[in-house]
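Fold tokens
===========
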Amino acid sequence: CAGAAAAFLDPEEIVLCGEALGPAHLEQVRRQCAKMLAGPPPRFTLAENFLEDYTAGVASQTLEALECALRGSVQMATLFLAMIYSAFVSLGLPDSMLGAAWPEMVAGFAVPVESAGTAAMVTSLCTVISSLFTNRLVARFGTGRTTLFSVMLTAAALTGIALAPSFLWLCVLAVPLGLGAGAVDAALNNFVALHYAARHMSWLHCCWGLGATLGPVILSVFLGGHNGWRFGYGAVAALQWCLVLALAATLRLWGRYEPRQPGEPGQARAGTSTQGKDRARNHAAVPAPQSQS
């Protein structure tokens, strides 16, 4: 029960194992799941003869384990959601900083005012190209690794922009900035669409708007203090590197919600688990009790 419950972010079906699990236990588990998930009770499938010597005491312990697993699953989903929201806030931060910083950049780089369009077009073009190929990256490396590497690209690009000696270097660094931004956007949009409710997609892009609003605000703090636009880009780069550390610390957890890629360690064990679950689903499904109202 615990393994099945922890395998889903929003479980719709949970496999119950044990030949001695009676209707009373099923109803108790259904009510507990509905309470923990704050939604309709999930479906249950009874896998007979999966555990031997399944007593009432074991059933009680299994119910407690299921409750702990559901609580841990919800907490893990919340952790991932907060991290994804943070990633989209950081994704929006540099998008509006160029326009705010450009009046001072022009003076330092000694280029025409209209040159800002060149840097913006390079970033946009690389974002589009990266988005087109992100599905292949996710299929090969997974969402976690793709997001980690992409945020590293944006953090490195922002650090380089803060130190850029000329406009040419600004355009060169716009390439990794756009590539990283496009990959993060496509990968996390796909992950949220697959694993979370539809309402989270709206909040996801709300977080991008929050980042796009905060970018010029952060920059204006440094411009107002006469520290220059380079300190503003450096501060945003530091925030991006903090996100890189958070993603690196949780990299292994992403694999719980995505299938293993061919050749990865544990592939054979994952296949065995899937076969066992398929055999369990072939047993008779336990019908949901009818409402008395």
User: Anything to note?
Assistant: The chain is about 70% helix and 5% strand. Residues 1-20, 44-58, 261-293 have pLDDT under 50 and may be disordered. The CA atoms of residues 9 and 81 lie 11 Å apart.
